[in-house]
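Submission sheet (multi-component)
Chains listed below:
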Amino acid sequence: MSEKPFISIEGIAKRFGAQVVFEDVHFGVRQGEFVALIGHSGCGKTTILNVLAGLDQPDSGAVLVGNDAISGPSLDRAVIFQSHALLPWLSAIGNISFAVRSRWPKWDGEAVRSHCQRYIDLVGLTGAETKRPAQLSGGMKQRVGIARALAIHPKMLLMDEPFSALDALTRGVLQDEVLRLCAATHQTVFMITHDVDEAILLADRIVLMTNGPYAKVAEIVVNTLPRERSRHDVHKHPHYYRIRNHIVDFLVERSRRFDEDRPRDYDPMHPPEVRPGLGEPPPPAPLRAVT
Amino acid sequence: MASAFRDPFNPDHRLSSGCSCGEHASQADHDQAAALGGTDDLAARLAETAIVKAVFGADPARRAFLRTVGTSTALAALSQFFPLAAAREAMAQAPGPLEKKDLKIGFIPITCATPIIMAHPMGFYSKNGLNAEVVRTAGWAVIRDKTLNKEYDAAHMLSPMPLAITMGAGSNPIPYTMPAVENINGQAITLAVKHKDKNDPKQWKGFKFAVPFDYSMHNYLLRYYLAEAGLDPDTDVQIRAVPPPEMVANLRADNIDGFLAPDPVNQRAVYDGVGFIHILSKAIWDGHPCCAFAASREFVTTMPNTYQALLKSIIEATAFATKAENRKQIAEVIAGQNYLNQPVTVVEQVLTGTYADGLGNVKRDANRIDFDPFPYQSMAIWILTQMKRWGQIKGDVNYKQVAEQVFLATDATKLMREAGLTPPAMSSKKHVIMGKEFDPAKPDEYIASFRIKRS
Amino acid sequence: MRSLALRSALLSAAIFLLFIGIWQVSSMSGGGGSQVVDDEYARLVGAAAATGQKTPFPSPSEVGAKLWQHLSDPFYVRGTNDMGIGIQLAYSIARVAGGYLLAAAFAIPVGFLIGMSPLLYGALNPYIQILRPISPLAWMPLALYTIKDSSISSIFVIFICSVWPMLINTAFGVASVRREWTNVARTLEVGPLRTAFRVILPAAAPTIMTGMRISIGIAWLVIVAAEMLVGGTGIGYFVWNEWNNLSLSSILVAILSIGLVGMALDQGLARLTRLVTYQE
Ligand SMILES: Nc1ncnc2c1ncn2[C@@H]1O[C@H](COP(=O)(O)OP(=O)(O)OP(=O)(O)O)[C@@H](O)[C@H]1O
Ligand SMILES: [Mg+2]
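Outcome: structure written.
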């Protein structure tokens, strides 16, 4: 894990009309790192992901890959969409090979096919190759989306709430899958999520955003749990609840009032990195629904 | 007497008689030629005639020779020392090359078009070297547009149409010509059967009438007839243009009370028990023109030989149709699916003039329809006066000039003579319409003399 | 399921027979009076007129006989104005195909551009909205006047009537392709042409096909009217011609064949539509 980020967000802001969704957003993702972004609905997470993907332009600031500002979408940054975004007229393997052919236009049919098959097998869809998206379950569709993203060997994976539409069981299975794949490939990942447990399970660092409008990065939580994790026993680690309570407390209380009682030394260019796993857990959050 | 191509080997014919090519013979011969007739035959005869003439010089010598040896022997004998075949070929091109042989001629399926139609199955076109196709067309506006578009080289039109086109009434002015009238008379006023007791037009107030086209003799004759009975055709009744095929259907459906229509529409209404014939149009004006053979001035000037050949075919067909004894045969030929598409008896009743009137009587009037190609310019002037009378054209009209431009009496005169018909000496004459005389020299006075008019 | 299909087929047949039966009976009851005129007159008029009646609507048996007559020799050509019903249908189908394919060749690419570009959409929309509701037959005189050829004019009229549904549906289908699908293509750096053919076209295809299906229906309706107007050849002209001859039996035969061909055209396109339809 090198210190210089693979991709760095430099003070981007986005407005829709007069409404400023977020501003002064700074953070970076390092090579091989898994960064999760958590924030309330509407604070601008998808917009940030779209900017990273190159699908959207910030109104100010820039996103740098290496030393160059990105100017548009790239095969180097694969996106797994919130709503899977499979092309419904293509079969599962058709969707994947559409991506593979875009990546390697000169490959012959057989090379494409065997490459696609490898990724179908990888995400556990063997046997469902020729099915159309409408014939697949939600979990299967999302697996096709993951296979499509991984099959083009991107330098970075951008995931927008990839599992939020799935039932808890399927979500768990897929989280394991992603955990396994990332451990095997050291894939650089940026993921948006609403699910605190998911973030702690998967991410190395968790970016916390305040509520919009004028949303910004409040702080970055470093996940001090060891890298080898499993869904079944991660919560047994002493850091787990400290981190979890810290994030829940942020979401429930501080994300709303951040502007009023922000630390005096707060500098949006260098949002504070905190390691709640190492310190004393903050007082438990009041019983209020997480929205 | 219509044209026929004389057989030079027929000893009973004089070769130097009145026609230009010296080929014309009796009507009977003509009919035969017409029925068989092809260009090749004609050219061949023409060539043979020239040779026979050259060999024998005077007619008496030829006659004597042929009587003695017989026709076929003579031909065989001559062909031994004369290259008849070569001469035939040379003569085939003689009358001046046709600029165009494949022609399309549009017609509306009514008996007025008889000469134009029958000239096809009876070989009058092919006899004059033309490969003409006669195309049934859906309506007057379409026939006008297709002729203006040059899809048709010439067409069957209502005789007022070339005048209207030339004057620019209803479309842009385009110089048009009408080298021949096709038929005279042949129309009728038909009323719905429920009106069979209303024989006096004064009882017709509030009636709805149909005519085939605004610029038609039918419209002018009906208006004239109504106005003479004291009805204002614009306010006391309704007159609308309805395509002939729709007339019987509309009469049956009670949408109209009657129509002044071309045949076979009138007779068809009787045939189907829907209407009765009130009067024939000849009772209004005996000898009125109706439909015409028309072509653009451009066609006439750029293809003079083709035009001559075409006009000749029409005039010859018209001459054939004039003969009462030919009418039955014509009816059979033109009633078929390819032409009028009507029951033969309906067409036959129209052409022979022995017809059921729709009230249970069989009437006989041999002149119910007649065929006379001569385009009297006085007719054109009468039509123009009626256009003016009913407000279709406005302002001053140079009647004589327009009439001369459109109604090509000179061409008709020449070709009628060639066809063995007697053209009239004058291209204008006085007409009598419902007892009232029309003097073509005084059109404005004529219009002024009417009580009901729009101008 | 099977028995339902069978039962509806039986019911269909029963309705048909009932209809034909009522028709036959009612057309028989009308005629059959005694002759009210003398024989000479009777020879000159139709059978109904001789009994003091109007020629009645044809009975199903007469129509059946006509149908058999037309179907037993559908492709004869006995002259410019006398051709079999099959030939006439072929002329109409050829005209419709010509105008329709031209319209598709124009409307689909142009609709594509309009759908892709909100600027073009805004600029051209007023024209489309004004031109679209014009009855295609209203174009006929204009077409005849400017094109100066009646068969090309009828093809033009088919073109003009079938172009709008295809144009509008293509533009709409293309404009409403889901953003995420085009985003997928963008993140995969797919070029504009490949995006057009591999993403937008298949995504919009069902909408485009719906437009094409509407168009073929209109085109088939219009060709009959156009040919009645212009004449010459075609099934519309056949109807006009038989109307001219007041032959209602032939007209009914023509109506039947117009219906059948129209249904076949529609079903053909419905089948194509099914091929490109996808479930989301
Ligand atoms: N095209 C747009 N036009 C106008 N406003 C927009 C547009 N796209 C997004 N917004 C606004 O920007 C804000 C951020 O939207 P965004 O989709 O990024 O939120 P999000 O954080 O991803 O929310 P969620 O968690 O519900 O997905 C919202 O208030 C939304 O209303
Ligand atoms: Mg979102």
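Remark: The domain at 102-184+289-340+371-448 of chain B is CATH 3.40.190.10 (D-Maltodextrin-Binding Protein; domain 2).
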